[in-house]
Amino acid sequence: MHTSFKRFAAFCFVLFAAMVGVAAAADNPMVGGAAMYANKTIVENAVNSKDHTTLVAAVKAAGLVDTLNGKGPFTVFAPTNEAFNRLPAGTVDTLVKPENKATLTKILTYHVVPGTHTSKELMAQAMKGPIMLKTVQGEALTIKAHDGKLWVIDAKGGTTGISIADVMQSNGVIHVVDKVLMP
């Protein structure tokens, strides 16, 4: 009986853990075909998105994994693989070389804003007029509302819409964008 009880207890624990995992992902949108869990960090979730393999490789090359696994909170405007593919040919290959780590870090940290900024909060502010968010890199991103959608404008005037908003993480929030933002 004692062994049966242990097996039952183990089964209940596994079932409970699975239910907690499902609940943690229930409110989050799928990204890149993968469930995103609110109880995991930005990096722990991003590595599962097939749409963000280039971003993950760039974060690793820049040495930012520990930072984005840190306490935060952070708001990350996460460019898709398609966004990186829109850059001139050879750009990504050049940026991930060790000698270009400083430039890569500057570009990646330009996609990160301290704090958790949800789309609801951003929309409420942007409806009153453009807002500026200071990035970890030091320069600002401009957020505007247009036709019920949030738009992000970089320092060079490049514009991209948020395609997937409010992917909650244990250390912040991700908003998926379809363009690489440039400081």
TrEMBL record:
Q: Which Gene3D superfamilies match?
A: FAS1 domain
- Keyword Metal-binding present in the record's keywords: the answer is no
Question: What Pfam families does the record point to?
Answer: Fasciclin (PF02469)
Which keywords, in A-to-Z order, does the entry hold? Signal
The protein's matches in InterPro entries, at most eight in alphabetical order, are given as: Adhesion/Biosynth-related, FAS1_dom_sf, FAS1_domain
FAS1 domain location, by residue? 39-181
Q: Which SUPFAM superfamilies match?
A: FAS1 domain
Taxonomically, the superkingdom here is: Bacteria
Do you know which SMART domains this protein is assigned to? Answer: FAS1
Q: Which residues form the signal peptide?
A: 1-25
This chain belongs to the protein called Fasciclin domain-containing protein
Q: Which organism is it from?
A: Pseudomonas fontis
Q: Taxonomically, what lineage is the organism?
A: Bacteria, Pseudomonadati, Pseudomonadota, Gammaproteobacteria, Pseudomonadales
